């Protein structure tokens, strides 16, 4: 059977370079919609998914890859003789590499929009292909993150992608689709004002790794909700100084909680989760000076609240 790679992406970062490398390695490239146009416009040979399904894209592109010619090619276990014989009888070729990322649902709901626009950005075929390919990870290399393109290509050029890497890529798929589905369900739940759902899922993404955890010998990372909350610590920008530690984040959060007690401009100094000084003034700078130059009167005011 031919070596085939299916490429269909919304985020086209690095996709031309990847497609060129795959073509050079002897892969026939299958593609859809805007990705197909981008590849062919740049001189990269590709065939439309309709050429393997023998069925046109329809319903404004809602249906194009949901077809046995695609999913049988992804799910057939190469070590299973009956699977391979069935593919031959059905004249279906295997698909060995899948490069897919999903409709930009997060971007769509992060700006002013109508409900219909959000719904149109819920991907169906993409997650289905990813999950099919990932389930058959022993036989299919599945790439959902452009950061993994280089690793996969390097191994392809040196004897083939290892089972360890394929298993890692499987994890990336199910992590990615779980977060995607959580964003969709959270959006719908909030639109319906459901306060206490029967199941409750959250989605976070890593903002940065920290210098250390609560103690110097511990590792830590800082995560934020995938749809950030305006005015939260995750919106803050570090202007100078060393890489942050867990305690820096914890202190900042404590300072923000205390600032919420005031309606006027205020500054708070915190060390090891304890307020060390609070300054209130008409101007932030003056409040800052008061906060770092505490007086007995100031401490009395702070601790009496």
Describe this structure in words.
By secondary structure, the protein is α/β, with parallel strands linked by helices. The strands form 3 sheets. It has a 5-stranded parallel β-sheet with strand order 3-2-1-4-5, sandwiched between helices. It has a two-stranded antiparallel sheet with strand order 6-7. It has helices spanning 15-24, 33-41, 50-53, 68-75, 81-90, 105-109, 115-120, 125-135, 149-156, 163-191, 246-259, 284-292, 296-303; strands spanning 4-8, 28-31, 47-48, 97-100, 141-143, 204-209, 221-225, 266-271, 274-280. It has a domain at 4-191: Rossmann fold, CATH 3.40.50. Helix 4 packs parallel to helix 8 (125-135) and helix 8 (125-135) packs antiparallel against helix 10 (163-191). A hairpin with a 2-residue loop joins strand 8 and strand 9 (274-280).
What would a concise description of this structure say?
This protein has helices at 15-24, 33-41, 50-53, 68-75, 81-90, 105-109, 115-120, 125-135, 149-156, 163-191, 246-259, 284-292, 296-303; strands spanning 4-8, 28-31, 47-48, 97-100, 141-143, 204-209, 221-225, 266-271, 274-280. It has 305 residues and is an alpha/beta fold. The strands form three sheets. The chain has a five-stranded parallel β-sheet, sandwiched between helices. A two-stranded antiparallel ribbon has the order 6-7.
